[in-house]
Amino acid sequence: MQRRSAGSSGAQRLAAIPLFEGVSPGELNMLGRILDVVVAEPGEVLMAEGGQGFEVMMIEEGSAEVLQRGERINVMEPGDFFGEIAVLSDGAPRTATVVALTPLQGLVFTAHFARTMHDRLPRVGERMQQAVRERRERDAGAGTPRD
């Protein structure tokens, strides 16, 4: 997996992710400066079940499968994000593994910046919390949590 700074294109790239809909251009510029881009090949692990949760990733291009105990529980596509449950739980262990299914490009925030973004940008924070609630409700029905 390759990782680099998003550089000057960060704000523009974030604007294309539904999580950031309605965020002001100034806020997008601020976030874009602290954003990294990850490129992965099919089969590469993006996050591992049981690992510490120190990043939130948003899929920009490609798709990834979410596995729990080796079983596929979801497929994520562009605009989807993951890792927020562990990050918002202060680095709790990941509850799922995420593996690239296709060539994938993702946008990544470290835990520190993801929590800051959650706290300081109410729209983004509420969307992240809504995703956490939906995933926990869905998983409660299945009997297992996931990230």
Give the % helix. 25-40%
Rg, please?
14 Å
* Largest sheet features: 5 strands, antiparallel
How many helices?
5
What is the domain tally?
1
- Class by alpha and beta content: alpha+beta
Looking at the overall shape, the CATH architecture is Sandwich
Brief write-up:
Helices cover 34% and strands 29% of the residues. By secondary structure, the protein is an alpha+beta fold. The chain has a single domain (2-141), classed as Jelly Rolls (Sandwich), CATH 2.60.120.
Give a description of the structure:
34% of the residues lie in helices and 29% in strands. The protein has five helices and nine strands, in the order βααββββββαββαα. The strands form two sheets. It has a five-stranded antiparallel β-sheet. A four-stranded antiparallel β-sheet has the order 3-8-5-6, with no helix packed on it. Helix 4 (111-120) packs across helix 5. The relative contact order is 0.21. The mean pLDDT is 86.
